Amino acid sequence: MSWTKERDLLIAQTLTFVQSITGKKPEAQARAETRIEFAPLDEIERVERPVEIVEATVDETVNEAVPATRPSPVRRSGLREEIQGRVAAFQAHQRLFNRERDEYFRSVLTKARASIETPPRASRD
User: Fold this and answer.
1) pLDDT at 111 (0 to 100)
2) Are 51 and 67 in contact (CB under 8 A)?
3) Whole-angstrom Cα distance, residue 25 to residue 97?
4) Are 66 and 48 a contacting pair, CB within 8 Å?
5) Residue 70 gets which letter from DSSP?
6) What's the CA gap between 103 and 115, in Å, rounded?
7) Contact 115/107 with Cβ under 8 angstroms?
8) This prediction's pTM
9) Is 68 in contact with 47 (CB distance < 8 Å)?
C-alpha cells in the first residue's frame, strides 16, 4: 500500500473516531470556532493529579498514574566534572586513533620504500 493511501485511510479513521466521540459531523466541528486558553505554569504545577493504583497478580503489570515531577537540577560542579571526564576520554581516544594511524602509515611507507629499492626480478620465459 502506498503512503498516500495509508495517509487517506488514517485521516478517514480519525474523522470517524472524532464523529463517534463528539456525536457531531466533522464538517460542523471545522466550522465552529474554538478557542483554547492555556493556564499559567504556576497553576499547572499546583494541580493535584489523581494516583490510580491497580492491583496486579504476579503475571500482570502494575499500572500507576503518578504526578509529574520535575527532575532535580544537576549540581554545576557535578556537571563540570562529567564534561571534563568526557572530554578527557575523547582526547584519550583521539590520541589512540592518531597513534594507530601513524603506525599504519609508517608500515605502508616502509613497504612502499622496500618495493622501490628492490628491483623486480625478471621472469624467465
Assistant:
1) 93
2) yes
3) 64
4) no
5) P
6) 19
7) no
8) 0.33
9) no
Confidence of residue 103 (pLDDT cuts 50, 70, 90): very high
What are the residue ranges spanned by the domains of the chain? 74-118
**Residues 6+ away with beta carbon under 8 Å from 48:** 67
CB atoms < 10 A from the CB of 29, how many?
A: 13
Residue bearing cell 500482570? 60
Burial of 59 (0-12, 13-18, 19+ CB in 10 A): exposed
In this predicted structure, what is the pLDDT of residue 19? 85
Chain Cα centroid distance, residue 103 = 37
Q: Which amino acid is at 37?
A: E
Left, alpha or beta for 23 (phi > 0: left; psi -120 to 50: alpha)? left
SS3 of 81-99: the string is HHHHHHHHHHHHHHHHHHH
